[in-house]
Design a protein that fits this description.
This protein has about 240 residues and is an alpha+beta fold. It folds into two domains: about 15-100, ANL, C-terminal domain (GMP Synthetase, Chain A, domain 3, 2-Layer Sandwich); about 120-240, Alpha-isopropylmalate synthase LeuA, regulatory domain (Double Stranded RNA Binding Domain, 2-Layer Sandwich), CATH 3.30.160.270. It is built from six helices and nine strands; from the N terminus they run ααββαβαβββαβββα. α3 (about 70-85) links the parallel β2 (about 55-65) and β3.
């Protein structure tokens, strides 16, 4: 049969792999493995069976915290109760890892650790009318573990309220960080990417060193809040380089 014969059976590893992957699972190995990985503390499970379907080995990777003997008993009970499968405990091997967490726990821990590294945390902003055409902007922050507030009275216009919120934030930072002088250089409202972004410039003076910082925040709830978050975006990064 020539190489061009269309009826020639193909050779090579790839077709074999495709046939192997598509084989049925008559002994319910996947069902057993899914059951075992649903048990508390089990990270992965592999079940080996003989050609006639007899379980020859169960390999478990679990988190530290549950005694291996208890884990083996849990596995025996689950297989018997759910699948009617009795497995000799001597065929079950358990390996433990010291510090493997679910992805959700790792993400939560990373977010919490990042928040803890921030020296300045936004807590709120209030707007209080003080007349027919004026309002008081009150910004509340947590700076190095201490709660503080600062007020700024401005005209009741969109731009003035945004500027007032940023100035109140900068005044509070300047008071709370005595090792440096902090001033607001400017604030801009940008229409970008089908949304609004507040960008700011903040200048810090420490001794004879002057540095211009830039920060930004997407407007989600209010212009005033975005103005404060833009200031914090700049100053938190600056403080992070000084620790």
């Amino acid at each position: 049969m020539s190489a061009s014969d269309p009826q020639r059976e193909p050779t090579g590893e790839q077709p074999k792999k495709e046939r192997r992957d598509s084989r049925p699972d008559p002994w319910g190995v996947k069902r057993a493995e899914n059951l075992l990985t649903s048990l508390q503390g089990v990270l992965s499970a592999r079940v080996e069976v003989s050609p006639v379907g007899e379980v020859t080995a169960v390999h478990i990777l679990s988190q530290a915290g549950t005694a291996p003997k208890q884990m083996v008993r849990n596995i025996e009970s689950a297989l018997l109760a759910q699948l009617g499968l009795k497995v000799d405990h001597r065929k079950i091997s358990v390996a433990q890892t010291a510090d493997v967490k679910p992805i959700e726990a790792l993400e939560h821990a990373a977010v919490e650790a990042q928040a803890n590294r921030r020296q300045i945390i936004f807590q709120g902003i209030d707007v209080e009318p003080v007349g027919s055409l004026r309002v008081k902007m009150r910004v509340t922050l947590q700076v190095r573990g201490e709660r503080g507030e600062a007020d700024e009275e401005v005209a009741d216009t969109k731009n003035s309220r945004m500027q007032g919120a940023a100035r109140a934030c900068v005044a509070l930072l300047d008071r709370s960080l005595p090792e440096s002088t902090i001033e607001l250089e400017g604030l801009r409202l940008l229409e970008q990417f089908e949304g609004q972004i507040v960008a700011c410039g903040v200048r810090t003076v420490t001794g004879r060193n002057s540095q211009l910082l830039a920060g930004s925040a997407v407007v989600t709830e209010s212009l005033e809040q975005a103005a404060v978050l833009a200031v914090l975006d700049a100053t938190n990064r600056w403080l992070g380089t000084r620790t």
